[in-house]
Design brief:
Blueprint lengths: L2 H4 E5 L4 H11 L6 E5 L5 E5 L7 E5 L6 H17 L4 E6 L18 H12 L3 E5 L14 E4 L2 H10 L7 E5 L5 H11 L3 E8 L6 E7 L6 E9 L3 H12 L4 E9 L3 H9 L4 E5 L13 E4 L2 H12 L11
Parallel strand pairs: 1-4, 4-5, 5-6, 6-7, 8-9, 8-11, 11-12, 12-13, 13-14
Antiparallel strand pairs: 2-3, 9-10
Helix pairs in contact: 2-9, 3-4
């Protein structure tokens, strides 16, 4: 039996473009389904083809609007299971509520754990996601979770831009991201610099106290997992410019953008911001400085390997 006879790939309404690109890489037609939104805000999903005894892969990010798209994800999983699919792998390029991974103040919910419980209760067999902000979220699940890295796609684009010429420095926006930033530095054969960032209040005000590392005369590439307001990227870029960086670029896995982020980016020293297509339901028009890099080949290969019972460890290499 061929792969197309065994496997079906569907996309939710939040990831139709990415789902189509993934299917193109797999050489498969996209699974047929529909989503109906009623006037009161209710969602209704319907699978439009036979999935009985089939391995189903559903691509659905959960952002803009996060709650609607997460509920739609649950409804799809439930629909596939009730239609007697053999398994349902939820491919969630951007996993919302991933910052809610701990109880760091009294009387609050551990939101990521609630999401994990809901996905399991709906019937998900496996989760494939991309660059979780808190990797320990994998431990909230009792089912397998593959937390892939966008690094190969982003590094490949940086090389295409010829930003690996020996005069590049990779910059982590804070100490917490330094370990992941070091992987980018190793992939590019570049040194690592770290910004000493200090949060001033809960509203998001922050300052850069120092840049640890030599950036003068170099092309700086700031790397991070995601941004919302763009504040950290812009402040780090300003600090790099003050310390003599020759040119400044940035690369992030998830662009959770707001209007304020685009304005800040346009006015900043950042020449170009690379971002993946993990989120395509953007509520804002992207700045001309934003360049989208597709992770469809990465996710398609992950699906192919999972379906073929092959190791996916090679996907964690740059």
């Amino acid at each position: 039996m061929s792969m197309s006879d065994e496997m079906l790939v569907f996309s939710g309404s939040a990831s139709t473009g990415l789902g189509t690109r993934i299917c193109a890489h797999l050489g498969l037609p996209c699974g047929k389904g529909e989503v109906i939104r009623y006037a009161d805000g209710n969602l209704f999903v319907r699978v439009l083809e036979n999935v009985r005894g089939r391995h189903v892969y559903l691509v659905q990010s959960t952002a803009y609007p996060a709650n609607d798209n997460f509920m739609e994800l649950l409804f799809w999983i439930d629909a596939f299971k009730r239609a007697s699919s053999l398994s349902v792998t939820a491919v969630v390029p951007y996993f919302s509520y991933q910052k809610g991974d701990k109880k760091d103040e009294p009387r609050v919910s551990i939101r990521a754990r609630v999401c994990a419980d809901a996905l399991e209760a709906a019937g998900a067999s496996r989760i494939v996601t991309l660059d979780l902000h808190a990797p320990q979220i994998q431990g909230f699940f009792k089912i397998p979770v593959d937390d892939l890295y966008a690094l190969p796609a982003i590094v490949g684009e940086l090389r295409e831009m010829q930003l690996a010429d020996g005069n590049v420095v990779v910059v982590s926006p804070d100490v917490g991201f330094a370990k992941k930033a070091r992987r980018y530095a190793q992939a590019l054969g570049a040194p690592l610099a770290i910004a000493d960032k200090q949060r001033l209040d809960l509203a998001g005000a922050m300052t850069i106290n120092e840049i640890i590392g030599d950036v003068a005369g170099k092309t700086a590439v700031i790397v991070d997992d995601f941004t919302i307001s763009g504040g950290t990227l812009v402040e780090v870029a300003a600090a790099l410019a003050e310390r003599g960086a020759r040119a400044i670029y940035a690369a992030i896995s998830h662009g959770v953008f707001t209007d304020e982020a685009m304005r800040r980016l346009d006015e900043s020293a950042i020449r170009k911001l690379l971002v993946t297509d993990s989120i395509e339901t953007q509520p804002v028009k992207l700045s001309r400085k934003v360049q989208v890099v597709s992770v469809a080949p990465l996710l398609a290969e992950a699906i192919r390997r999972i379906h073929g019972r092959e190791s996916i460890s090679v996907l964690f290499e740059s």
